[in-house]
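FIELD: query
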Amino acid sequence: MEITDIRIKKIDRDGKLRAVASITIDGIFVVHDIKIIEGEKGLFIAMPSKRSADGEYRDVAHPINSDTRRDLQNMILDKYNKEEFSE
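FIELD: result
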């Protein structure tokens, strides 16, 4: 599996949300609404989620293991940082 495209839409408003990303996998599958958030320890990603009947938010798409999550986060944040400083 390969991430073949990453698109970033920056958010210009107050709050911790900095941008929303979409990734394309193998040129045939897209995951939208990956949030880039400014936390106390720096930027991190939050996978797309929805609120369940009990009021909790649950990811609707997510990596199965921590290595894949780390790699995905690094790729998205690298793209975000390149766009951030090239403007």
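FIELD: remark
The mean pLDDT is 94.
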